[in-house]
C-alpha cells in the first residue's frame, strides 16, 4: 500500500470514528472535504465485511436520518429514549436496561437476544430490519412513530454498546 492510500485510509477511519463517537454531523464532514458516501470497505476498516457492526453501515443509516432533517445525534439522548416510559412501557420492558442481557417480549414471552451489537453479531447490520423494528417497537412503546432524530440518537447509542 502506498503512502497516499495509507493516509487516505487513516483519514476515513478518523472521520467515521468522529461521526459515530462524537457530535459530528455528515454536513461538517462534507465541509472538511470528507464524504461518508465515499468510504469503501477497505477505507473504513479492512475487515468491515466480517464485522457485525460496521461504521460504514451505521454512518449510512445516520445519514439517511439527517436527510430527513435530524441531527446532530447524541448517545445520551438515545439512552434517555431507551429508558423513557409511556403508560408503563419503555424499550427496557422487553429489551432490559442493560442491552447486553437477554430480553423477553412482554406479550409472547419469547426470548429476545441482547440488543448490544458487541454481543449479538447481526444487530444493526440491516437497514430494512432497523426500520421495521423501529416502526413496530415505537408504535408498541410510544403509540407513535419515532422521529428521525430519536431513531438516530437510539441507533448511535446502541451502536456503542
How would you characterize the largest beta sheet? 2 strands, antiparallel
Radius of gyration: 17 Å
Helix content: 40-55%
Portion in strands: under 5%
* Coarse structural class: mainly alpha
Counted by DSSP, the helix tally is 8
What are the segments in which pLDDT stays under 50 over at least 5 consecutive residues? Answer: 2-53
Main sheet: which strands, in order across? 1-2
Coarse shape: globular
Order of helix and strand elements from N to C terminus: HHHHHHEEHH
| Number of separate strands | 2
Mean pLDDT: 75
Termini separation (Å)? 33 Å
Tell me what you see in this structure.
The chain is mainly α and 161 residues long. The chain contains 8 helices and 2 strands. It has helices spanning 3-21, 26-31, 41-44, 55-67, 75-83, 91-95, 127-142, 148-159; strands spanning 103-104, 111-112. Strands 1-2 form a two-stranded antiparallel sheet. Helix 1 crosses helix 4 (55-67), helix 4 runs antiparallel to helix 8 (148-159) and helix 5 (75-83) crosses helix 8. It is globular, with a radius of gyration of 17 Å. Residues 2-53 have low confidence and may be disordered.
Short description:
The chain is an all-alpha fold. It has helices spanning 3-21, 26-31, 41-44, 55-67, 75-83, 91-95, 127-142, 148-159, and strands at residues 103-104, 111-112.
Amino acid at each position: 500500500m502506498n503512502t497516499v492510500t495509507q493516509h487516505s485510509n487513516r483519514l476515513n477511519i478518523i472521520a467515521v470514528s468522529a461521526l459515530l463517537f462524537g457530535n459530528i454531523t455528515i454536513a461538517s464532514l462534507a465541509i472538511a472535504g470528507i464524504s461518508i458516501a465515499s468510504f469503501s470497505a477497505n477505507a473504513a476498516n479492512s475487515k468491515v465485511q466480517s464485522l457485525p457492526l460496521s461504521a460504514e453501515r451505521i454512518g449510512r443509516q445516520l445519514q439517511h436520518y439527517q436527510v430527513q432533517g435530524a441531527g446532530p445525534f447524541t448517545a445520551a439522548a438515545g439512552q434517555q429514549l431507551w429508558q423513557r416510559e409511556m403508560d408503563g412501557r419503555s424499550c427496557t420492558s422487553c429489551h432490559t436496561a442493560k442491552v447486553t442481557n437477554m430480553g423477553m417480549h412482554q406479550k409472547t414471552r419469547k426470548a429476545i437476544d441482547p440488543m448490544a451489537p458487541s454481543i449479538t453479531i447481526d444487530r444493526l447490520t440491516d437497514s430494512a430490519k432497523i426500520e421495521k423494528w423501529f416502526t413496530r417497537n415505537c408504535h408498541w412503546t410510544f403509540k407513535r412513530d419515532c422521529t428521525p432524530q430519536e431513531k438516530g440518537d437510539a441507533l448511535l447509542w446502541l451502536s456503542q454498546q
